[in-house]
């Protein structure tokens, strides 16, 4: 039962309105070896509620309209300085690991840091020594550059722009620690191409696997599949897919019990997860934006999972 509750708690995603508070809260608590993604534990009450609804809370809460909005035909994800904390949001439980670099928020990725991934560490970019304080107070310095990982040195990730991904190297309890970080703020998105192109999703695939909603929190349940023509067509359609805010998608799309997770390990060793939602939608879990994919192509991919 304890393990069931733990998994239920871990599967609650943090709404974008609480990102600031979860990143700022508990600096030392946040510095733990395992990154749990954009998730928060709000205690056994939240876990019981999650179990009662069969996991339906995943990404269910609607972010305030002032955060991710449609402006001039595009979905706008504000930068860190604009991404204000929602009043009364909780900072209990698992915290977000990440930093602010040049006014943008970068969060630690869930990808395994294999030798191949570590070998992507490139040119040194600089140091981040400002600390995101436990109180949640920010200063101009921490808005521009601050970390809850402790002082870290930033490096390029070979094959990616610094505005997309970074390596952070620091220490945890006297032991060298490496984080692979991905930018989460400051986007203007009309189609998937405006985001996914920089992730090189159209590059060769080393391994492709999928999971159902009931399995997604356990890496060992991932089922391997072939990156065939259906997958390549799906990625092309994802690039062309229309970016949408959560308010723009049909209400039934917030029922995630039929979600399927596509885990893509690229040739460079970095693994990304795409969440496919029945109805033709794809969500990149930390970004909080929906992408509407061509229904024919989506259906072919869905049925292959």
Rough outline: globular
Largest beta-sheet characterization: 7 strands, antiparallel
Radius of gyration: 18 Å
Q: Separation of termini?
A: 29 Å
Structural class by SSE content: alpha+beta
Note the total helix count. 9
Q: Which segments are poorly predicted (pLDDT under 50) over 5 or more consecutive residues?
A: 1-12, 25-66, 85-94
> Strand-residue fraction?
25-35%
Oligomeric assembly: single chain
Summarize this structure briefly.
The chain is α+β, with helices and mostly antiparallel strands and 305 residues long. 21% of the residues lie in helices and 29% in strands. The protein has 9 helices and 17 strands.
What does this structure look like?
The protein has 305 residues and is an alpha+beta fold. Helix content is 21%, strand content 29%. The protein contains nine helices and 17 strands. The protein has helices at 2-10, 19-24, 27-30, 44-52, 115-118, 140-144, 193-196, 229-240, 295-304, and strands at residues 69-71, 74-77, 98-101, 104-108, 121-128, 145-147, 152-157, 165-172, 175-183, 187-189, 205-212, 223-225, 242-244, 260-266, 271-277, 281-283, 290-292. The strands form three sheets. Strands 5-7-8-9-4-3-6 form a seven-stranded antiparallel β-sheet. A seven-stranded antiparallel β-sheet has the order 12-11-14-15-16-17-13. It has a three-stranded antiparallel β-sheet with strand order 1-2-10. Helix 1 (2-10) packs across helix 4 and helix 8 (229-240) packs across helix 9. The protein is globular. The chain starts with a helix and ends with a helix. 37% of the residues are buried. The model is unreliable at 1-12, 25-66 and 85-94 (pLDDT under 50).
């Amino acid at each position: 039962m304890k393990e069931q509750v733990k998994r239920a708690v871990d599967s609650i995603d943090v709404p974008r309105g609480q990102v600031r508070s979860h990143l700022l809260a508990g600096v030392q608590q946040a510095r733990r070896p395992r990154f749990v993604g954009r998730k928060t534990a709000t205690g056994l009450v939240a876990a019981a509620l999650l179990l009662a609804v069969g996991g339906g809370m995943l990404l269910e809460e609607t972010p305030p309209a002032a955060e991710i909005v449609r402006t001039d035909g595009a979905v706008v994800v504000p930068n860190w300085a604009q991404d204000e904390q929602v009043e009364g949001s909780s900072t209990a439980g698992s915290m977000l690991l990440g930093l602010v670099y040049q006014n943008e928020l970068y969060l630690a990725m869930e990808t395994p840091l294999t030798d191949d991934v570590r070998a992507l560490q490139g040119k040194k970019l600089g140091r981040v020594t400002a600390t995101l304080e436990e109180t949640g107070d920010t200063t101009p310095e921490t808005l521009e550059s601050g970390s809850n990982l402790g002082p870290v040195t930033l490096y390029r990730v070979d094959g990616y722009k610094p505005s997309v991904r970074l390596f952070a190297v620091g220490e945890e309890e006297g032991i060298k620690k490496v984080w692979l970080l991905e930018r989460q703020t400051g986007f203007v998105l009309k189609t998937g191409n405006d985001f996914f192109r920089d992730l090189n999703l159209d590059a060769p695939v080393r391994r492709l696997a999928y999971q159902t909603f009931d399995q997604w929190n356990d890496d060992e349940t991932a089922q391997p599949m072939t990156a065939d023509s259906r997958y390549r067509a799906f990625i092309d359609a994802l690039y062309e897919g229309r970016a949408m805010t959560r308010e723009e998608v049909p209400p039934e799309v917030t029922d995630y019990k039929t979600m399927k997770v596509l885990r893509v390990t690229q040739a460079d060793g970095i693994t990304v997860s795409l969440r496919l939602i029945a109805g033709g939608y794809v969500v990149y879990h930390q970004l909080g934006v929906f992408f509407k994919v061509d229904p024919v192509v989506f259906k072919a991919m869905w049925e292959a999972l």
